[in-house]
């Protein structure tokens, strides 16, 4: 495939080969680093199986993603409210 690259990322000590778009390689590598960092934190907090560390890391990443989405939605709602406020101010200033 044009514009793709075969890479291998290591998560929890296991290699995962994949084919990705070249432009996204850094994203994948940084994501793997973040997940491995979370796994290291969980390993210091409790003893569990490797898949449990991966599950907890996946949950944390998903929670962070949902938090960002909710924040973005709130920001968009605040922008809509500001627009309505400006329209009301304009209307009141012109009557």
UniProtKB/TrEMBL annotation:
The entry's keywords: Cell cycle, Cell division, Coiled coil
Biological processes, Gene Ontology terms: cell division
Pfam families: ZapA
InterPro entries per record: Cell_div_ZapA-like, Cell_div_ZapA-like_sf
Entry keyword ATP-binding: no
Keyword Mitochondrion annotated: no
Coiled-coil intervals, chain numbering: 67-94
Domain of life: Bacteria
Protein name: Cell division protein ZapA
Species of origin: Alistipes hominis
Lineage, highest ranks first: Bacteria, Pseudomonadati, Bacteroidota, Bacteroidia, Bacteroidales
